[in-house]
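Most newcomers find our protein records easier to grasp once they have seen one. A record pairs a protein's sequence with a compact description of its fold. An example says more than a description, so a record of this kind follows:
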Amino acid sequence: LYTAAFVAEIVRAGIQSVGRGQVEAAMAIGLRPGQVLHLVILPQALRVIIPPLTSQMLNLTKNSSLAIAIG
């Protein structure tokens, strides 16, 4: 639950990092909203999302193993 807030913030920031002009250009060439998300927004957002998400997942693994060791 604690990590979910961090993951949500990472994904939100990644999606917001895609410029509004990119979305407008995709809509202008006739892509539907689902296609815009799949073909334009997500590929660009993943470049921003993956590094901090990897770090967060490693921290989760580290913290869960520590919790098991403590009891």
Q: What stands out?
A: The chain has one domain: 2-70.
